Amino acid sequence: ITPGALVALKISPEDISIPAGDTVEFRLSGVDAQGNRVEGADLTPEPTWRVIGFSPESSKDHETLEPSPEDSQRRLWKPERAGKGSIEARWMDTQTGKIFTAQAAVQVAAGKLSSLEIQLMDNGRPQRTPLQRPYVLISGAKYALKTIGRDAFNNEIDAQVTWNLVGNLGR
User: Fold this and answer.
1) Which residues contact 9 (CB under 8 A, 6 or more apart)?
2) Coil, helix or strand for 62?
3) How many C-alpha atoms does 61 have within 13 Å on its Cβ side?
4) Can you point out the beta strands (E) in 78-135?
5) Which of 19, 24, 41, 165 has a 20 to 30 A CA-CA distance from 71?
6) What averages of pLDDT result for each successive group of 10 residues across the chain (171 residues)?
7) Is the pTM of this model over 0.90?
8) In Å, what is the CA distance from 131 to each residue of 54, 101, 135, 169?
9) Angle made by CA atoms 68, 73, 74, in degrees to the nearest 5
10) How many other CB atoms sit within 10 Å of the CB of residue 171?
């Protein structure tokens, strides 16, 4: 099959979920009206790439798409913050002035558990400051405690823990 003229751009993978800290490679290709890849499509000038939809506090790592050393039509992305968004590539055909855009949906999940924090709850809400070691609690009082797990990039993880009293405590 001989592909026809370029009518759209496509990013592969089109939809991906990865853990924070992993690297994913996105590939941009041209496609014809039947969806066939147009091999050797000259995307000059080079397309612009960007990350869309992540919160401003995470913009540092989510804005950076590094060129792949093997191919100028590929970008590497190593996100650190969890969230949902998309990767976009945009290219203008200088002969026709037509702008082509492609997007890939991305979801970044928290990475592996790296730390646990214990919070003292007050009427279902965490107190302003987390408990600090050594934990000082008053004998006979009741406390509601909550754990918050975090990965290496400070993303929150729902940590399922088992609580135990060790030693002669609470007796």
Assistant:
1) 28, 29, 30, 31, 47, 89, 91, 100, 101, 102
2) helix
3) 14
4) 83-92, 99-109, 115-122, 125-126
5) 19
6) 85 96 93 83 85 66 76 89 93 91 96 89 72 76 86 91 79 58
7) no
8) 31, 49, 7, 17
9) 35
10) 6
